[in-house]
Amino acid sequence: MPEPSSRRRLDQPRTQRRLTLNIEPDTFGKLTERVARFLGTGTYLFWQTLIVIIWIVLNLTAVTLRWDPYPFILLNLAFSTQAAYAAPLILLAQNRQDDRDRVSLDEDRARATQTKADTEYLARELAALRLAIGEVATRDYLRSELDKLREDLNTKPRKGKGKRGEPRRPEQEAVEEPDDTRVHRTPSHGGHPG
């Protein structure tokens, strides 16, 4: 970790003692933004216009109060001074706004990159799911296969019943047990089947 400068260290005396004006850049920047915002408002324009009108009227009409005669040199000097300070204040405010916009743009760019990556990932996953679903038997596919099997079963004759190629009738579809699989029971002692 770098050693703090002697200006920040409180355990060592300063080598030079001079009176300096310590203005934090952020505080000064905020002040310039407030002034620049105020210079662009209708309130400021209204009060400036009112002061200029009063200035001109008093210097033209009031003979005893003339502090700035007709060419209004003092008024021009006030306007020049105002312009000399307003322009740099507005430029400082614009620079701070540019810095904020740059940070915001970087954040937006990072967010857009992340969103694009997420979208591409989701598109790949969706494509993989579509391929996987394409390999799985769907309900419609199973129905069509079952219908084909039914048709095949209906068109096959069973042991001489019905003609070949003729569809089976519903009474022929019942499953019949062959004769040799039947169980023959003999009556038991009481004549009742056991």
TrEMBL record:
It comes from the Bacteria. InterPro entries: DUF1003 (IPR010406). Keywords: Membrane, Transmembrane, Transmembrane helix. The chain crosses the membrane at residues 38-58, 70-92. Residues 152-194 are annotated as: Disordered. Residues 163-172 have a biased composition (Basic and acidic residues). The keyword tRNA processing does not apply. This is DUF1003 domain-containing protein. The keyword Membrane applies. It comes from Amycolatopsis antarctica.
